[in-house]
Amino acid sequence: MDPGIISLVNDDEDDDSKIENIFLFTDKEFNLFLHKLEFIMLVFSTTCYFYFVIRSISRIRSTGDLKFLFLLTAAFFALMNNSSDIYYRIMTPLYGAYNCNKFFLTFFKISASLNWVPISYYQVLRLYYITYNYYRKIVRNMIIIVSSSFSLIYSVCYFLNLKEFYGNKDSFGGCVVSNTNKYGNYIEVSDIIDSCFSLTIVISTLFQSIKNLKQYKLRHHKIKAILDESIGVFVVLLISKVVFYSLIMINSGRPGGDIFWDGLSVIVLFCTYRLLNITPKLNEKLENKPINEKFNKRFYKELSKLNNNNRNNYNESSSTSNIKGLYNRNSKGELNFPSLMKTNGRYNIKDSNNPYGYNGINNNAEIFNNLRKNKYYNNMNNSNFNETSANTT
């Protein structure tokens, strides 16, 4: 590249003007600076995308959680998109007469088709798993319908905007893309509204869980950890989108726009990975032995209290139909709790395999069998607790 392009002052200026303008950029020099900064951000974001691809594959193999496919798809397509940009920037001197509206533009549109949209639909699935146990079916369905509608609107705007891209040439970047910006604002507004709605539902679910699950102290820490992490991630997502979309709108038409797009894309994928990794990471911590002795004693104290309460409740045969459901590992939803919706003044436990809860049984023989199963499970819990306590002491 011609060194004269990056000179800060002209040779025909006197020494005083050189000293005065030594730290000032002309428009041409400032654009060159933005192009270089954009290329640095391009390489950095490509490295991040490659990391997310590897982590997604690793998590799918270790946990079997197919929800990581959302992150894998988005990160892989973003990686292909950035790799193409890096290639054409490096090979700029060899593609002086290359038509950027052919293969380059086609590959750009294909690789850009699925690097944002899967994350939007993952948010819908995320809300479904989080809200499963805390709302009535009609309310939960309304939440999913509204969230899906926002994601669908975002997808339509995204693909309409993708059609508006056309190839262009740049002296520094070689083949680049430009956009008519006809649908750009629609993408930004719909994406922000979608994130606001998701954050509102997660916060509402947190208060709902605290209100209804005070008696489940052993599992309450897991619920709080999941929801607190989700709220923090959605707050970061919302603030990042507002800030970066504002910067994109302010700097539209100027070089270096990919700096903000790649920066926002890395943040979105990182937050998605945190959301996906909450449950596997928390389960790994719960499987490990407690290191803190104080936490260990408190854990078994709560377990003993819970078993004593269960034994007292099961001895009262007259109140069999009013027993509140306990934690059930077979229950649906990411938080692994049975539904706590009341039906006719009683808690309705939807899982018929739950040995503790009320399932609408009116037959005396079935009630007797249910009580016998309760006694059996209670004895097993007490024996396991005694063995564990003996080992720890």
From TrEMBL:
TM regions (residue ranges): 33-54, 66-83, 103-122, 142-161, 192-210, 231-253, 259-276
Superkingdom of the source species: Eukaryota
Keywords: Membrane, Transmembrane, Transmembrane helix
UniProt-recorded name of the protein: G-protein coupled receptors family 1 profile domain-containing protein
UniProt source species: Piromyces finnis
